Amino acid sequence: MIRNHRGPSVFWWSLLSIVAAAVGVYANSFSGPFIFDDLPTIVENPRIRSLWPIWRAMSWPAVSSGDGRPIFNLSLALNYALGGLNVWGYHAVNLALHVVSAVVLFGLVRRTLGTRRLRERYGRASLWLSLTVSLWWVAHPLNTESVTYLTQRTELLMGCCYLLTLYCVVRSAQGRGGSRLWSVGAVIACAFGMGSKEVMISAPVTALLYDRVFLAGSFRQALRKRRSLYLGLASTWLIVGALVATHPHRHAVGFGFSELRPWEYAATQLGVVVQYLRLTFWPTPLVIHYDWPVARTLAEILPPAIAVGTLACLTVIAFRRRPSLSFLGAWFFLILAPTSSFLPIRTEIAAERRMYLPLIAVIAAVVLGGYRMAARRWGDRITERRGRRLALLVLGVFSWLGALTVVRNEDYRTPESIWRDTVAKQPHSALAHGNLGVALVEQDRFEEAIPHYVEALRLKPDKASTRTNLGVALFYLGRADEALVHHTEAIRLDPTYLSAYNNLGVVLIEQER
């Protein structure tokens, strides 16, 4: 077997390589501007302009990605206090969160492979296996939306807290005198995660399942030994419950949408999950916003249902004989459950950032499965030559993933480039055409913007913002009469849309009315 070198120098070099890898693949993302949801959430958000009073800094505008996520809002306020609207600083914090998560993941995997259940199989190679999982995950292009798209810091904060919660649980179980401090750390991390994004709701369940599989051996033993820890973790559900109750996102999430019923959303998510899995192994094309069709026919539902159902059944069946493998399946499904089950999210049926944490399970399964295959074939006869081949394979996969991440980051270099990329990959997306039109208008390229506005209205005729944006482009081209028609129609579609009234007033003044 490959020996697991436990020297401190190797350990610290491993951590340094993770940091270097993350910086290397995301270095070209720092020049990316604020885009789309970044504008209302960061640029136009008055709440982040001051750190005091702190409750104002943790509050949020009515329509923004920070709605009901106070820890996320506080992080933006800290960013603004340090550098204003310097976009470089926001990218630096996003990358720092990604690096911290990767380092915690390295420690979590390494300690997991050193547990009594897995020590015999993986213990001697735990450091190298942990490093491989972390490097592949930190460089995977499926994570670019979470890291490069600044508003998706919600996912980064939640993911970091999720991993920290689990790591603290492990240290609490394996520690001696400091176990109580690690338990307190787990509860604090879980509480911060609940204030970052609602997906964190599955963390206490995942922690208990991890304890049962790798540490205690049974749920009864886990609860008996660490009852206060799990009571503390469960109490953090009150945080997310209060936030959801006071800010329910009724315009985007809920059971009351006639056009997207719960069973339709659940049936559609089967195909979405298959897409997520495909992008894990072949991460192209990547899209910032999917215009995903609702699945309603048997031909659309049955094939992905068989694939996802098979994985779910294998996860349940493996719980008895291969609980460690079952845990990876449970990790994947539990974290996806809040967004990819039966609770309709009307604004985004599919989003790549939702795979930020579930991706870990797939990568870990591939890495550990590949190692077991090599161990069965060669046993103790993994020679230096074979070891070099394995190292080259690991490095080759990392290089491929890193290169794709660097290329994907280039799509974020301007608002025009990201929306032009989205239009090319999602030509039937009204949102993509509309936002490309906005990006072109900001460059005074009105003639080029108009066809995209027209296409957006063809795809979604009742969108008031697109209607008035088209009116603005027409006005600047001297076509005031046509602009008047579109602004008036925008007001008819949405009588509360203030920009349409303002734009209509500008046209009337131009006509001396």
Mean pLDDT: 92
Which spans of ≥5 residues are poorly predicted at pLDDT below 50? 1-5
Class computed from helices, strands and strand pairing: mainly alpha
Helical fraction equals 55-70%
The percentage of residues in β strands lies in under 5%
Order of helices and strands: HHHHHHHHHHHHHHHHHHHHHHHHH
Largest sheet: none
Calculate Rg over CA atoms.
25 Å
SS summary, helix count? 25
Query: Which outline best applies?
Result: globular
Termini separation comes to 85 Å
Number of strands: 0
Report on this model:
The protein has 513 residues and is mainly α. The chain is built from 25 helices and no strands. The protein has helices spanning 8-26, 38-43, 54-57, 70-83, 87-113, 119-122, 126-139, 144-148, 153-174, 179-194, 203-216, 219-225, 227-235, 237-246, 262-281, 298-321, 323-336, 358-378, 384-411, 415-425, 430-441, 446-459, 464-476, 480-493, 498-510. The radius of gyration is 25 Å and the shape is globular. The N and C termini lie far apart (85 Å).
Notable traits:
disordered N terminus; mainly alpha; 25 helices; 513 residues
Summarize the structure.
By secondary structure, this protein is mostly helical. The chain contains 25 helices and no strands. Helix 11 (203-216) packs across helix 12 (219-225).
